[in-house]
TrEMBL record:
Keywords: Lipoprotein, Signal. Belongs to the rickettsiale 17 kDa surface antigen family. This is 17 kDa surface antigen. Pfam families: Rick_17kDa_Anti (PF05433). Residues 62-101 form the Glycine zipper 2TM domain. GO terms for cellular component: cell outer membrane. It is a lipid-anchor. It comes from Novosphingobium malaysiense. Residues 1-19 form the signal peptide. It is found in: Cell outer membrane. Its main location: membrane.
Length: 111
């Protein structure tokens, strides 16, 4: 029984290792992009269809930071009871506000 478990463990460790060696080479060829920069530092690339595409933030960083900051502010404002309502409402409002700020600050204009 012990030999079967050792053999299964070795197979489980060796199969992903052989797949990981060949996967990045194929992914690199498929997703290789030649980035260009505008005068104000915005990265863009030309797609397979001939159109230009911009690298733009989706607001995730602002969403996370805004959610944490909003939760702390909401908890500080709500001083009655268990303060869960203020924390939840503050986190939601802060996340929405942080996401919009992050998206609006990184709006590139490349066409």
């Amino acid at each position: 029984m012990r030999k079967v478990i050792v053999a299964a463990t070795m197979a489980a460790l060796s199969i992903p290792a052989t797949l990981a060696v060949s996967a990045p080479a194929a992914a690199h060829d498929r997703h290789e992009r030649r980035y260009h920069h505008t005068d104000n530092g915005i990265r863009y690339w030309r797609g397979d269809d001939g159109r230009y595409y911009c690298k733009k933030s989706n607001g995730t960083t602002g969403l996370l930071i805004g959610g944490v900051a909003g939760a702390l502010v909401g908890r500080a404002i709500d001083t009655r009871g268990d303060r869960a309502t203020g924390t939840i409402l503050g986190a939601a409002a802060g996340a929405l506000l942080g996401r919009e700020v992050d998206r609006n600050n990184s709006r590139p204009r490349c066409r």
